[in-house]
Amino acid sequence: MLNDVIFGQYYPVRSFVHNMDPRAKILFVIAYIVAIFLADNFYALAAVTLFLIVAVLASRVPFGRVLRSVKMILFLIIFTAILNLFFYAGNELHVIWQWKFITLSWEAVINTVFLAFRLFLLVMGTSVLTLTTAPVPLTDGIESLLTPLKWIKFPVHELALIMSIALRFIPTLMDETNRIVAAQKARGANFETGGLIKRAKAVVPVLIPLLVSAFRRAEDLGDAMDARCYSGAKGRTKYKKLVFTWRDLVGALLLAALIAGVVLLNVYLGGKFAILDAFL
Amino acid sequence: MEAVRLENVKFAYREGEGSYAVNGVTLSVEEGEFVAVLGRNGSGKSTLAKMINALLIPTEGRAIVFGLDTADEKNTFEIRKSAGMVFQNPDNQTVASIVEDDVAFGPENIGLPREEIGRRIGFALDAVGMSAFRSATPSRLSGGQKQRIAIAGVLAVLPKIMILDESTAMLDPKGRREVMDVVKKLNKERGMTVIFITHFMDEALEADRAVVMHRGETVMDGTPREIFSRSDELEMYGLALPRAAYISKKLAEGGMPVGGAFRAEDLAEEICASLQKA
Ligand SMILES: Nc1ncnc2c1ncn2[C@@H]1O[C@H](COP(=O)(O)OP(=O)(O)OP(=O)(O)O)[C@@H](O)[C@H]1O
Ligand SMILES: [Mg+2]
Hints:
Strand content of chain A: under 5%
CATH superfamily of chain B: P-loop containing nucleotide triphosphate hydrolases
Number of helices of chain A: 10
Number of helices of chain B: 11
Bound molecules: adenosine-5'-triphosphate, magnesium ion
Oligomer: heterodimer
Radius of gyration of chain B: 20 Å
Shape of chain B: globular
Largest interface: A-B, 32 and 41 residues
Mean pLDDT of chain B: 91
Number of strands of chain A: 2
CATH architecture of chain B: 3-Layer(aba) Sandwich
Strand order of the largest sheet of chain A: 1-2
Helix content of chain B: 40-55%
């Protein structure tokens, strides 16, 4: 399961979203994130959620699969949520419970739910991108979007190549890590118990062989790339060409509608605490 | 036509001191030949192979590939186009996360137009029998399949020589068979020149010619049958006979009227024949 960490989690089916241009998808994700941060009340977040649901349906990736990506940062969400819940500062709070400097207020509850909701939408949305875009088009998209930087001699092609190779090697190195861990366990290494320092020390005999092997692999890969006539960006062509299609136009229109909707909902339905006035 | 000519090549990984990984090899490989290279660990096989496609440049002597000297940097690109190389570990020669993107890497590097790259991918995957896996993820394939993808990646550049450096070493018997079948087919049907480095003597039997290396030198050169009939010499160079040949030799020494079989099938036939006579 570790293999699915953020990248390398491409879900290979054909769908409307899969067939969109990766450059468009990257820009859409940025716009989507903007929408999330613009949203200032629950109605606006609900609009973003609606958009997310449409996007997931159009991607034909099962919801469970998209949710899995949230599971991986669940800890982070819970952690920030708890901090937020008890240490929310503000004036004129509707206090529910108080003990020394820890205060639990309705505002904190709302704020926490809001924050967790945002994080959730953020992760779900970005994982739709990585689930529907294979690493090569993804890096091609990034490369293409960064092309203007070539102008200031920024090594865009090399950066994109490094990224796609890194993505490609994640599963390989994960397998390797598991093998080394198993090998060290067989030699009596203990990764499960002991204090922080002891555990950190136990990582060293895993990290060192992993590094050694990674360097070996890098050397082999360099040879293999040379042998396959690699000689940098010049004179190189691309098999997969990126083209915008009507799908990207549809996506752009939907996102424009989303942002407009979020702004309107913000303006007309007040801030996130407005619902408190209705109840308290 | 002569595909590869090595003229007294030497190679030292560290300049200065007199220890050569390859120490004065002269070798000529004709176009269309299938040459197996044998030799114990550290005998210089990989070093030799890397000199053929200009990954390493001879410290002394010359390496000529289809008339081009590898020492001239201007030739490097052409040489690598005509001499492809498949390595031992399939995981370390895959650059992309999708089969077709990986196979496309070589054609992209030589600057082919898109349509042609598409055709080459189709051709190369077809040649290794992996067409059905065009959009698969290499990391989920079996070892033999991965190695066939690596071969396809090299094939897509349409090389005239294919060097395989222990490309079957990490595979199970089935995977080894798959790779060997693909390579033999390329050799027979497309006249591909093959230089096949291996530790498996049974694989060497499938070649037209076998070369044995020892301490950086070529010490034996002939048909696999010639080489394997000189078993004492082989032993001296740290090599064993193919299993069937070994058993056959022992049976003959024990007085059974067999001899000269190198492959398991031949040996079985001989044994059956001798049993029927008895
Ligand atoms: N990168 C390197 N740096 C320094 N010495 C090396 C390097 N690679 C190989 N050698 C040395 O050169 C000699 C020949 O190595 P080479 O890899 O060519 O042998 P080989 O026949 O391919 O062995 P194997 O069967 O183990 O693959 C060995 O003594 C080895 O230690
Ligand atoms: Mg070797």
